[in-house]
Amino acid sequence: xxxxxxxxxxxxxxxxxxxxxxxxxxxxxxxxxxxxxxxxxxxxxxxxxxxxxxxxxxxxxxxxxxxxxxxxxxxxxxxxxxxxxxxxxxxxxxxxxxxxxxxxxxxxxxxxxxxxxxxxxxxxxxxxxxxxxxxxxxxxxxxxxxxxxxxxxxxxxxxxxxxxxxxxxxxxxxxxxxxxxxxxxxxxxxxxxxxxxxxxxxxxxxxxxxxxxxxxxxxxxxxxxxxxxxxxxxxxxx
Length: 238
Fold this sequence. Notes:
- The protein is of the alpha/beta class.
- Helix content is 32%, strand content 20%.
- Belongs to the glucosamine/galactosamine-6-phosphate isomerase family. 6-phosphogluconolactonase subfamily.
- Hydrolysis of 6-phosphogluconolactone to 6-phosphogluconate.
């Protein structure tokens, strides 16, 4: 399902509203809310809104558990770190217990070993069902999401929930949730805006199925809902 908005402010507001709605619903139903954050620049407006006085008091943050969809394998104080961005815009501004935050990086271990450790943390909290309440995703100009990049072997992964690999074009390791785990979620919200997203959005939502070229096409919820929040420019309707 694709929802088209006039601008990024409207997208941010809708995404923040969905986050609050999902949190309140999950906490009321089962006493906890499990969410997956996305990195890059796209969600910064959403996170700042959630950290604002108008939003942050609508959520019982002591019952919120935060994970990430993917991460560059860099220290948490590196400017490339998705976690660093999330802390600076959201997590450092809300009363969430540190033990409820699961960063996708750890000193002194290999990316591959930590991927297995991260998956274990998810299984411990969510059980074998592995169903997150809400996953926020971005979409690259090339149609990738999380660290599911075109042509990479991780696209074929069927058993691991978390994987790590060396992304040669970027000359760095990446760690990512895999498509099978993402697709278990109750709600998946994809944020995409701007002229550079036009082609990818068109191919992903209306083009021929070719996930090797457009990995976002792998995201097909088993029983949950998938929602694209896009602006008129990305949708080609501006």
